[in-house]
From TrEMBL:
Residues 225-242 have a biased composition (Acidic residues). Coiled coil: none annotated. It comes from the Bacteria. It comes from Rubripirellula obstinata. Keywords: Signal. This is SMP-30/Gluconolaconase/LRE-like region. Residues 216-244, 425-481 are annotated as: Disordered. SUPFAM superfamilies: 3-carboxy-cis,cis-mucoante lactonizing enzyme (SSF75011). Transmembrane segments: none annotated. Residues 425-434, 452-463 have a biased composition (Basic and acidic residues).
Length: 481
C-alpha cells in the first residue's frame, strides 16, 4: 500500500497534460516565432548487435559526430554520423549513464559509480571509481540512519481507510463523467489518456480499501482479546534485514552518475548527495584526481540532473526548481533564471523542467523541456533570445539530452522512449516531418521511468502543475504499475 513515487506521478501527469499544454501554445502565434522545425530522425543501431541497446544519453564531439552511450551494463559507446552510421564503437563494463567530450575530443563516460576517459576512437586512457562512490561506501552510519528514517516515514505515510474510500469515490465519479463524455464523443486527448489510466487506479484503491478494512477489523478484535489491558504496539520494530536492504538500495541509486562535462583542464561530475535527496557537483582534473564538491543541494526529479560546462562557467538545469542556475567553475552562483509556467512561454512547462541544456559555439544556452519537447535559446545572462521549436517526442519526466552542432545549424534531442535522436533544422517553407501516431504501448513502457524509480526520489520534490482541480493528488495516487 505504498503511495505513488514521484517518478510514476510525474509520468501520469505529463502523459495526461503534456499535450494540452502544447496545444495551448499551438493555438497562439508562438509557433510562428520558432526558428527551427523537425527535419529527421537518427537511429544508432549496430547491425551486429541483436540486443539493440537503448540510448541512455548523447553529446556531440567537435566534428559534429554523435557520441551516444547505450545499454544496461555492460554497455557501449557509439560514435555515428547524421545518417546513424556507426564510425566507432567500444564496450564499457558498466551501464553508461552519462557522456561528454573534453577539448581534445576525449570521450568521458560515467556510470554506476565509475568514470572513464577514452580517446576519440575508443582507447582507454583512465578508469577509476567516482569520488562519490568511495565516500558512499565509507558512510555506513549516515546511510543507516537515513534508511531507518526513510522506513519510518514510509510507514507513517500509509493510506488510511477513510482516505482510500474518499479517493476511490473521486475516481469512480471521474470515470463516470469521462465515460459519459466518451459516449457523446466529446473527449479530448488528455481525457482519453486519463480514461486509460483510471481503471488501474480504481482496481488498486479497491484492493487497498479492502485490505485496510480487514486490517482495521483485525486490530479491533485483537484489542477485544487483549488480556490485562495490555496495549498493542503502535509500530512494529524495524528488522536488521529491512535496514540492510534499504541501505543497499540507497547505495545502488546513489551510485548513478547523472552528468559529466569538461572545459579546459577540468571535469565536472554530477552525482546524488551522500545524505538526503539532493545532488552534488564534483570538480576534478582530466585524470579524475583532486576531486572536490563545488556545488551541493541541487534539486532534481525522476533521477535527472544535467550540469554542463562552457567557457562562461557551469550551467545547471535544476528541474525541480524550474530554473537554470549559472555558477563559476569554483561553484559560486552568478545568476539564475526561470519559473514554472504551464504554457512554457514565460517559464518552463510541464513537470520539472528544464530537464537538459547545452551550448553553441558562441556560448548561448539551449534548454530542453521533457514532455513537450520545447527548446529555447538564452544568452548566458538568462535573457531569452528565441524559441527554437517543439520536438515531437513521447511525453514523460525523463532525460532529453540536447546538443547543437558545431559544424551546422542542426540541433539534436533524444527521444528516450523511441530510442532515437530527433534533428531540428532552420525553418523552411515546407511542413516539418511528423511522427506516426505513437503506439499505445509507449505510454506504459517507459524505460526512463522504470530506471528512475530506483533513485527513490521523494514525492515532495516533484512540482506538478495539474491544470484540472479534481485530478489525483500528488501524495495520494497509487502506483498503477
Amino acid at each position: 500500500m505504498r503511495l505513488v513515487p514521484c517518478t510514476i506521478l510525474c509520468f501520469l501527469i505529463t502523459q495526461v497534460f503534456s499535450h494540452s499544454s502544447a496545444a495551448e501554445v499551438s493555438d497562439s502565434d508562438l509557433a510562428d516565432r520558432f526558428t527551427h522545425q523537425q527535419s529527421g530522425v537518427i537511429e544508432i543501431d549496430d547491425a551486429d548487435d541483436a540486443s539493440d541497446q537503448k540510448i541512455n544519453a548523447f553529446c556531440l564531439n567537435h566534428e559534429g559526430h554523435i557520441v551516444a552511450v547505450c545499454g544496461t551494463g555492460p554497455g557501449e559507446v557509439r560514435v555515428s554520423n547524421d545518417e546513424g552510421e556507426i564510425l566507432h564503437s567500444w564496450a564499457v563494463d558498466v551501464k553508461p549513464e552519462s557522456v561528454g567530450v573534453s577539448d581534445d575530443d576525449s570521450v568521458l563516460v560515467g556510470g554506476e559509480g565509475k568514470l572513464f576517459r577514452f580517446t576519440a576512437t575508443g582507447d582507454l586512457v583512465v578508469e577509476t571509481e567516482s569520488p562519490h562512490a568511495a565516500r558512499l561506501r565509507s558512510s555506513t552510519n549516515e546511510l543507516r540512519e537515513a534508511a531507518v528514517a526513510s522506513i519510518k516515514s514510509r510507514r507513517r505515510s500509509r493510506m488510511t481507510l477513510p482516505m482510500a474510500k474518499s479517493r476511490l469515490r473521486s475516481f469512480e465519479e471521474m470515470m463516470e463523467k469521462l465515460k459519459e463524455r466518451q459516449e457523446d464523443k466529446e473527449l479530448n486527448e488528455s481525457e482519453e489518456r486519463m480514461l486509460k489510466v483510471l481503471p488501474a487506479l480504481l482496481e488498486r484503491y479497491q484492493k487497498q480499501a479492502a485490505d485496510l478494512e480487514a486490517e482495521a477489523e483485525k486490530k479491533a478484535k485483537a484489542a477485544e482479546d487483549a488480556e490485562d489491558g495490555e496495549e498493542e504496539k503502535s509500530e512494529p520494530e524495524i528488522s536488521e534485514s529491512e535496514i540492510e536492504q534499504k541501505v543497499e538500495s540507497m547505495i545502488r541509486s546513489k551510485m548513478r552518475v547523472s552528468s559529466i562535462s569538461s572545459r579546459g583542464e577540468f571535469v565536472f561530475v554530477t552525482t546524488r548527495a551522500i545524505e538526503g535527496y539532493g545532488y552534488d557537483v564534483w570538480k576534478m582534473n582530466l585524470d579524475f584526481d583532486d576531486a572536490e564538491v563545488v556545488v551541493s543541494d541541487l534539486r532534481g526529479c525522476c533521477g535527472q540532473m544535467d550540469v554542463q560546462c562552457s567557457d562562461n562557467g557551469l550551467f545547471v538545469a535544476e528541474n525541480s526548481r524550474d530554473r537554470v542556475v549559472h555558477f563559476d567553475v569554483d561553484g559560486k552562483e552568478i545568476n539564475h533564471w526561470g519559473k514554472s509556467d504551464r504554457a512554457g512561454v514565460d517559464g518552463f512547462a510541464s513537470c520539472c523542467n528544464p530537464m537538459n541544456l547545452c551550448f553553441d559555439q558562441e556560448g548561448f544556452v539551449y534548454t530542453a523541456e521533457a514532455s513537450i519537447g520545447r527548446i529555447k535559446k538564452f544568452d548566458p545572462s538568462g535573457e531569452l533570445v528565441s524559441f527554437v521549436g517543439d520536438v515531437e517526442l513521447v511525453p514523460g519526466c525523463k532525460n532529453v539530452s540536447i546538443a547543437v552542432s558545431p559544424v551546422s545549424e542542426k540541433i539534436y534531442m533524444l527521444d528516450l522512449t523511441r530510442n532515437h535522436i530527433k534533428v531540428m533544422e532552420p525553418k523552411q517553407d515546407e511542413k516539418p516531418v511528423t511522427e506516426p501516431e505513437q503506439e499505445d504501448d509507449l505510454i506504459v513502457t517507459n524505460e526512463a521511468m522504470v530506471d528512475s524509480q530506483k533513485d527513490d526520489t521523494k514525492a515532495d520534490e516533484a512540482k506538478v502543475n495539474a491544470p484540472v482541480a479534481d485530478q489525483p493528488s500528488k501524495n495520494e495516487l497509487e502506483d498503477a504499475k
